[in-house]
């Protein structure tokens, strides 16, 4: 399959060089948090839990959403991905046709979701109009459901194939009904790491530029970090600082979602010597360090239950986490890499897990407005 280097047309608002050069003290501080183990880690966890209570109280939220991965054909070559149709993929190549996509959207609406999330590979057969049509199909079926769609890499791909600038791509998507976008494709915001794990993917600067462009148009996004592969703790520290500096610029990140690397079926682990994912203490250090460092700038920390499981997700509620993510219903990306915790969690299970932790279960929308409390 052909591989391309994306060339999105996008303006720069905040340079990576400026962030790193002006943030050396912050980077060292976050690095010192990430290194904590033993009693020092447990003290950090306690501090994170206290900050969590100060910011959001005892409410723990979740969203009733429906995930649609509409194609796994991709021009990229990310070595951590087993979702893409390739020789090492457990999932056969697929591309939803219009009828199948409509069927999925209709199923989501019947299930009463407040959000539909759509992401896919960078399909070489897709046109810009194909992407716009996905949004239009959802809007024809539901004028009100929140559409959370297209990573910064997908936005870059649309800019590349349409030769439109990123701002115009966002404007057109928003006019068709896009409400927010996932801040995935961040992986680790370090270009030396990216050259190994995702060489054709957008650069760190391009990711920053695309995210800020969307934010400046009033489009919220999540923020993420994929960790536990070849990166160092210092790389993680710089990544967290970059996210905070973007948030100080725009205020449009809804949450931070740490994403532990799922290694089992990936080239990055099986051929390129990556670690076999994170350890439990590494996970807890990420959650608690992020909570302490971000404080009120990014008030919501989400745990990825498809990657870590509900039991560990429940425990993370004592390490600064206040959100369990979504019901999902369907999820192919983590599953294809070897995640073993399923694709669906029911509202009843979320409520049970949260209440058992001594917290108040709350159903929210995508931008963290409360829909229903189970107090």
From TrEMBL:
Cofactor: [4Fe-4S] cluster
Enzyme Commission (EC) number: 2.5.1.147
Residues binding S-adenosyl-L-methionine, per UniProt: 80, 187
GO molecular function (one): metal ion binding
Keywords: 4Fe-4S, Iron, Iron-sulfur, Metal-binding, S-adenosyl-L-methionine, Transferase
Free-text remark on how the cofactor is bound: Binds 1 [4Fe-4S] cluster. The cluster is coordinated with 3 cysteines and an exchangeable S-adenosyl-L-methionine.
CDD domains per the UniProt record, alphabetical: Radical_SAM
Pfam families, per database record: CofH_C, Radical_SAM
Name of the protein in its database record: 5-amino-6-(D-ribitylamino)uracil--L-tyrosine 4-hydroxyphenyl transferase
Species the sequence originates in: Candidatus Heimdallarchaeum aukensis
